[in-house]
Amino acid sequence: MNIINAINDFLWSYLLIAILLGAGLYFTLKLRGVQFRLIGEMARLLVRSGERCDDTQSGQQSKKRISSFQAFAISLASRVGTGNIAGVGIAIAIGGPGAVFWMWVVALLSSANAFVESTLAQLFKEKGKDSYCGGPAYYIQKGTGRRWWAVTFAILITLTFAFAFNSVQSNTISLALHSSFGLSRVWIGVILTALTLAVIFGGIRRIARINEVLVPVMAILYIMLALYVIAMRIGYFPHVMKLIFENAFGINQAAGGSLGMAMIMGVKRGLFSNEAGEGSTPNAAATAAVSHPAKQGLIQTLGVYVDTLLVCTATAFIILCSGMFDSGLTGIELTQAALSDEVGVIATVFVAAAIMLFGFTSIIANYYYGENNLDFIHRSSRLRIGLRIASAAMVMAGTVASLDLVWAIADITMALMTLCNIIAILVLGRYAAICLNDYMKQRRQGKDPVYRKETIPEIADRTECW
After folding, report:
1. Rounded to an integer, what distance in angstroms lies between the CA atom of residue 36 and that of residue 413?
2. d(CA 90, CA 334)
């Protein structure tokens, strides 16, 4: 743990925060605040997406393709998980109320990163058997011509999502169910592992159908619960906001290198939750059948707001309104205790059920990211089966491992993967900017934008799906 923590301190204190927020600021200025000025367009596209698949190859809608909304739901399933409930609890317990402020900052700035990476994923996607495929590994190889860089990313995301992140999800699920019902964490692991294998052997289309139904319902119910808690403690709400902003720079918290602990924990847990700039959601974004790359880029940007500004903030307000943030509890146990204090014991049962659903949909979405990138390295049915078994084994291991260990390992792999992707989108970001300009030009002409490969002649031979 000492070695792991030392690596984490170096990566997060001296490298990742500066690069992540710096890239977000750069793209915010370069794209003239795309994440703010086009919120209405994002919502319009999401509402219209539904089951509609704009198959630009055949000119017809195809039921076999992944719709824009389904791709959004897959990425949201990975985003909305234990990071929103347990991760926020950890951030507040260690970094104090000010960590919430830095979650907001990373969401607002990094949402520009999310637009760029998802647009690039669409631009450089490839045809698969039942759906399109793509992501950072694909746009790194096609955009830069450096396969070693692309393979490095593919390895890092497979280790991060199919292994490290899935152990975090299962760890939180087991803690929540054990705390609420006294269930054996070993048996929770056995059942969860069996369910994981049953779903991931069904493929991406089954994952898409499950997530399309479960994710929106879970998020809405959880936000409604948070609104109820806030309404019951409305008189305390101004004090909560004061706590957040007073502690935003970690003045009263332990130091973390050259940055306040509030900033470090806020950015860490914010990135773990919303994944903006991390390189994960482009894998889902690439699967959508749309008529223009910028369409999915805009829709995926909206997902950052749903995740952090709604779901993470809901958890933060529940914890801070309860006044239990300095009780010594952390993670899922802090969130459960806060809800129990506000709503009653029944709330801990609700959280356990919510974390089971949030966590499980994250597990299957996380696995897909690993499979997609394993296929990029070398497409083999034997390797795919091996990954499924190994990923399920990590689900089992996570249910019985310690909380500190699984989160610390996840932070290291997440940091390395994000660094690899951020450098790539800084190199290739100009293509996303051209796509956005082309999209807006067609919108101003009253058209439903359609991308043609001739728009960017220098990469026309590398954009096979347009």
Report:
1. 30
2. 8
